[in-house]
């Protein structure tokens, strides 16, 4: 298949380009930050908030799928940047939907557990949404737009994404590793639950879903649900660092700017039932992550 990957310079975008190219698909990579070399060639420039630019860039490629990994994901920063968040997470997806309609393509785009309030997790796909902040609200609005479009598109909610690749922004796992390598104490919350998701494994699962012609709304994440504190301890143990440097705190004590869904996490039965796919658990994911860090480093 011919696949357009939007956000191809980011962590998940790079993993999708790698997985799709290795599987023999033709991949055209786009990103706001262009010029990064990938297995599919240099990343082409694309600002998804510009409808005319999206149309001009994607229509000539005539893809079977547009895989959108681009998003404004800064949870705290979103609170002071609502207009920018909506421009990317809502209007950007609307522009991609128009491009998909013009070319006969299908769209895959990502959502988040932040559409939930974190009071009754883990959540299945039919759980009532109640976002606590700007970021989650933008993703809930995006989901509604894709559903209203009525096309055979795929929305995938995921969470706690981690991994490493060239020139990416940091993530929780890389931050933990850098601090522990510097022998710094870190405070990590014990009351935020979720499914840590290795980006490379998410890319594997997403590619399998689109190869099967997936459509609708699905939860896709790592198989194990743990607290952020437990995740940090597992990281420390896997890399041989001192777990005693990881100090337990509550979310209230940490004082993060935006509210988080605390008792979050996903039920993954839909993924297993409808696609026959099994996400990796933490033990297998951690071994693969160790190999990534050996290859690319932890960003220090």
Structural description of this entry:
It is built from 11 helices and 15 strands. It has helices spanning 11-22, 51-58, 75-78, 82-103, 134-149, 172-181, 199-211, 228-239, 251-254, 269-275, 282-296, and strands at residues 2-6, 26-31, 37-38, 41-42, 44-45, 65-68, 106-112, 154-158, 161-162, 186-189, 193-194, 197-198, 216-219, 226-227, 246-249. Strands 5-2-1-6-7-8-13 form a 7-stranded parallel β-sheet, sandwiched between helices. It has a two-stranded antiparallel ribbon with strand order 3-4. Strands 9-12 form a two-stranded parallel ribbon. The chain has a domain at 2-161 and 197-224 and 265-280: Rossmann fold (3-Layer(aba) Sandwich), CATH 3.40.50. The chain is globular, with a radius of gyration of 18 Å. The chain is α/β, with parallel strands linked by helices and 300 residues long. β1 (2-6), α1 (11-22) and β2 (26-31) form a beta-alpha-beta unit.
